[in-house]
Amino acid sequence: MNEQPLLPRDFFDRPVDEVAPALLGQVLRHRTPDGEVAARLTEVEAYAGPLDPASHAYRGRTPRNAVMFGPPGHAYVYFTYGMHFCMNLVCGPDGTSMAVLLRAGEIIAGEDVARERRPRSSVRDLGRGPARLCQALGIAREQNGLDVCAPDGPLTVHAGEPADPALIRTGPRTGVNGAKEVPWRFWIDGDPSVSPYRPHVPRQRKKSVPTRGGR
């Protein structure tokens, strides 16, 4: 399989709101014993570390988010809702904890492998959403911390066809509780692999119903 050149580390060593739209159209590849799968990125979200209430790093460094504080060009993978993995790319100077969440992508290589991992998905839905994208590419906790700029690494990001600036759209991030108004979700307008927008909905606690004879 012919591969595009790797994105250099200085691509990621920039403000996160610059890196995020520049990632649209770039190619994420993952090589596993099952085979190689590649996705053209079509939707991302930027998070600005301690300056951003919606970021995992807003309250400081923890064992979970430690990769975000490391050098740019590394994968930050986290587990959410007790069932899904999501992947970010660490950006900005070492120690700033900025990252871009990879929200969606079009599978452009290894579709047969991706289908084995997501047998009930249509072609459009194989990487349509951050958890689906990780599942299709076989990304899980073991990939947390990998250097995506390493030429011999299993998980890499390559130069693709940059998105047409006229088609790049911005809007509120999906499902965040803090900083809801920040328009740091970026996507390619009209691309079928882009995931649907869902605003954050606070969970409602069930009210207890008093019973007779209760304390």
UniProtKB/TrEMBL annotation:
The record's Gene Ontology biological-process terms are: base-excision repair
Q: Give positions of region: Disordered.
A: 190-215
Keywords from UniProt, A to Z, are:
DNA damage, DNA repair, Glycosidase, Hydrolase
Q: Which CDD domains match?
A: AAG (cd00540)
Record field: compositional bias (Basic residues): 200-215
Q: Name one GO molecular function term.
A: alkylbase DNA N-glycosylase activity
EC category:
hydrolase
EC number, as in UniProt: 3.2.2.-
Q: Quote the PANTHER family the UniProt record gives.
A: DNA-3-METHYLADENINE GLYCOSYLASE
Instruction: Give the family per the record.
Output: Belongs to the DNA glycosylase MPG family.
What name does the UniProt record give this protein? Putative 3-methyladenine DNA glycosylase
Per the UniProt entry, what species is this protein from, by scientific name? Actinomadura decatromicini
